[in-house]
Amino acid sequence: MQATADSTKMDCVWSNWKSQAIDLLYWRDIKQTGIVFGSCLLLLFSLTQFSVVSVVAYLALAALSATISFRIYKSVLQAVQKTDEGHPFKSYLELEITLSQEQIQKYTDCLQFYVNNTLKELRRLFLVQDLVDSLKFAVLMWLLTYVGALFNGLTLLLMAVVSMFTLPVVYVKHQAQIDQYLGLVRNHINAVVAKIQAKIPGAKRHAE
């Protein structure tokens, strides 16, 4: 019974986090999204200039400086005003953050599902179960070699964060035009694939 209640509570928390993430990506609270977006950019820019160890250490020191300073400030304030409000972070210290065995098993099963599907898909592509799909994958990897030559991993991650916070808003504002162009691109790709299937013997049969 307790495990079921914990699972329901965790699902509610996950649903709440998902809703907050959507609100952030669509800039429904400009101030909150700006803070998160700016923090992500600052972190990634710091990683491009300093090592991961240095960035993590400085972030930890900054967080500790803030919490220790606030703790001392509240203690002095309580001593001067002769109040007994207790620890300023008491509500956070009492917050339950442990995962139950059922929750761990649930997330492990999800991870196992995605890993198995990924391995099966890679096996299918590399062992050419479908010739057309393997050719598409080869073209994608070939394009990624050019992307890797132009950008490093952190730059791509920085571009991904910027895109994540800008593309949803742009899509909502210009959805009709974007859908129209995406449809044209999709039709063009399908036409190219159809030509490849017609030229390569047995490709259509493998695809079916």
Give a written overview of the molecule.
This is Reticulon. The chain crosses the membrane at residues 35-64, 150-172. Residues 21-208 form the Reticulon domain. It is a multi-pass membrane protein. The protein is mostly helical. The chain has nine helices and no strands. It is elongated.
Task: Give a summary of the structure in a few sentences.
By secondary structure, the chain is mostly helical. The protein has helices spanning 2-25, 30-49, 52-81, 90-93, 101-126, 131-150, 153-173, 175-199, 203-207. This is Reticulon.
Write the layout of secondary structure elements.
Layout: H1 2-25, H2 30-49, H3 52-81, H4 90-93, H5 101-126, H6 131-150, H7 153-173, H8 175-199, H9 203-207
Keywords: Endoplasmic reticulum, Membrane, Transmembrane, Transmembrane helix
Main location: endoplasmic reticulum
Function: Inhibits amyloid precursor protein processing, probably by blocking BACE1 activity.
Report how far apart the termini are: 48 Å
Q: What share of the residues does DSSP label as strand, in percent?
A: under 5%
SSE ordering: HHHHHHHHH
Task: Estimate the helix proportion, in percent.
Answer: over 70%
Give me the secondary-structure category. mainly alpha
Number of helices: 9
How much is the average pLDDT? Answer: 80
The beta-strand count equals 0
List its salient traits.
0% strand; 208 residues; single chain
